[in-house]
Each structure stands twice: as C-alpha cells, then as structure tokens.
Q: What sequence folds into this?
C-alpha cells in the first residue's frame, strides 16, 4: 500500500511562516564552542559597542529558526512535530541539504522564514519504503531582503 | 583580521582566493566526534533527534550506535574550506548529502579540492570545492560542495 495517501499528498504546496529571535552573542558562543570551528572571523567584540554587523557562523540560520517546544510536544523520535504530513511510523531523518547565503549573517539579524513543501516522492529502500519530502525555505531579514535560500530533503518513514 | 589570528586558525598558509587553480587539494581536516561533542552540537542547533544521543532507541532502529548529525558533518566541510582559505573568506553556498550512517566515536577525514572557479557579477572570484567525509576504511559518509569568496 502506498505511503502517499490523498490526505498526505494534500500537503504539497502548503507553506508556513516563522520568525527567529535576534541572533544573540550567546547563540554565537554556543555554536562556536560546540562546532569546534574557532574561526576568528566570528570572534565577538569584548564589549557590545560596535558589535552590530559582526558576522556570525553561517549555519546559525538553522539553529535560530528551529522551534523550541516542551518535551511533551516532541515526536517519539525526538523531532518537533511541526508542519509536516504524518507518514508511516511518523519518524524522520535528514537527507540532503543545499543552502545559499545571499549575504553573511550578522549579530542581531532576525530572520523571517517561509517553508513550503515542494514535493513528496515515495522510494523503495532496502530496509523499508520511505518518502522523500522536498522543502524549500526562504529567509528574509527585518528590512525584507532575502538572506538565505534552503532546499532540504527530509526522509519520512 | 590580524596575521596572528589567521596563522593560528589555518592549518597551513592560507590559499589565495584570487589565484588558486582548479585541482588544488585543500589541507585535510580530521575529526573524531565524541558523544559529548555531538550532544553539545545538537543542543546548539536545537536538534533533539534521539538517533544522536539515545543508544537504546538507535539500536531499536537497527543501527549499531548513536549517529553523528548531518549538519555537523556539513559544518566540518565549511570549516575545512575556511581553514584552507583563511578567515577573510566567506562561505556563500553549501550542499551536502549523507551517503552512509556515521557512528560517533570514530575518526573522520574531511578531504577537499578546488573543482571550479568563476566570477560573480560584482567581480569577486567564486571558488567551488568538493569534499568527502570518510570514516575508517575510507567509507564515504558525506559528500559536499562549498562555494567560497573573499568577504
């Protein structure tokens, strides 16, 4: 039986909009220490004065736009049960990711994201059948300029 | 950017974005992520998938042990490019695909080479590098492409 029921397919084309908090010095320090990439490009000024415009690690776009929810609202696999069709067991894994930064992210940037489910395709795997969901997300800054484009393939099974 | 900070960061003398030719190999980066490092990274990017910290859950799913998150391996490729070209370089595109499960606690090598060079509309040179992340036995777990330019 196909995993792609009419109800599941009705998700294709749906979008959600979300906002990040402003990118803080704490988010930067947490990411830099956790990633092990001590690039001096992302060194923060010792005082807040003049920190506006300080570049931050590019992958922070992802961190600061992920929703923070209580554990009781997480799916069994620990993922956020946000805007996505429930397929099979409801579990997910990451697939491929393509990100383009139209300008460097900076301290205090606040991003508005719009994520759209572009397609759903069923595949036959060695262990199980699964569905590849293609998500397109665009992120704008407070001035309405496009900052980041992302294409993400999520595996649902 | 001070020369000292650049020298400390780069594994070798930084490559020049203005002159590097296609085919240039970048210095290899090595990573051996511990469980603690993976948990710290997952917390930093708000990824709470149990495959990255819950041994019993991971075994239930048919894997041998907890798994390195794909975004961490993508970030290793950004780091390898940044350490090769220095902190004046700006990453403007990243593409990565996980091709095999990457267990925690083993060593990975991140190898890359310049695969194309071009010019943007603003005149800046755009350098594209392809990377592999490989575990023991040279099993490739991630393929990646990074575009980088002068900031």
A:
């Amino acid at each position: 039986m196909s995993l792609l029921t009419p109800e599941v397919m009705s998700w294709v084309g749906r979008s959600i909009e979300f906002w990040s908090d402003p990118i803080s010095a704490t988010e930067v320090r947490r990411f830099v220490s956790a990633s092990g990439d001590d690039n001096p490009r992302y060194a923060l000024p010792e005082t807040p004065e003049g920190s506006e415009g300080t570049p931050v690690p590019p992958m922070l776009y992802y961190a600061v736009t992920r929703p923070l929810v209580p554990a009781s609202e997480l799916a069994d696999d620990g993922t956020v049960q946000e805007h996505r069709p429930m397929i099979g067991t409801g579990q997910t894994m990451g697939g491929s990711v393509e990100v383009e930064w139209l300008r460097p992210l900076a301290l205090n940037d606040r991003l508005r994201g719009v994520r759209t489910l572009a397609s759903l395709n069923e595949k036959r795997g060695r262990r199980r059948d699964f569905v590849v969901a293609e998500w397109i997300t665009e992120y704008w800054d407070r001035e309405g300029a496009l900052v980041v484009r992302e294409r993400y393939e999520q595996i649902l099974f | 950017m001070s020369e000292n900070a650049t020298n400390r960061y780069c594994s070798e003398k930084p490559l020049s974005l203005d002159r590097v030719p296609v085919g240039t190999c970048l210095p290899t980066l090595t990573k051996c992520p511990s469980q603690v490092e993976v948990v710290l990274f997952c917390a930093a990017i708000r990824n709470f998938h149990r495959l990255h910290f819950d041994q019993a859950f991971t075994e239930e799913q048919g894997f041998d042990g907890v798994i390195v998150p794909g975004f961490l391996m993508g970030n290793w490729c950004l780091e390898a490019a940044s350490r090769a070209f220095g902190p004046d370089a700006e990453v403007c595109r990243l593409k990565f695909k996980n091709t095999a499960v990457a267990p925690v606690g083993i060593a990975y090598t991140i190898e890359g080479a310049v695969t194309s060079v071009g010019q943007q509309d603003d005149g800046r040179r755009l350098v594209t590098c392809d990377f592999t992340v490989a575990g023991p036995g040279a099993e490739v777990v991630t393929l990646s492409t990074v575009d980088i330019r002068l900031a």
Summary: The interface with chain A takes residues 1-2, 5-6, 8-9, 31, 37, 40-41, 43-51, 54, 57, 62, 69-72, 74-75, 78-79, 82-83, 87-88, 90-98, 151 of chain B (CB under 8 Å).
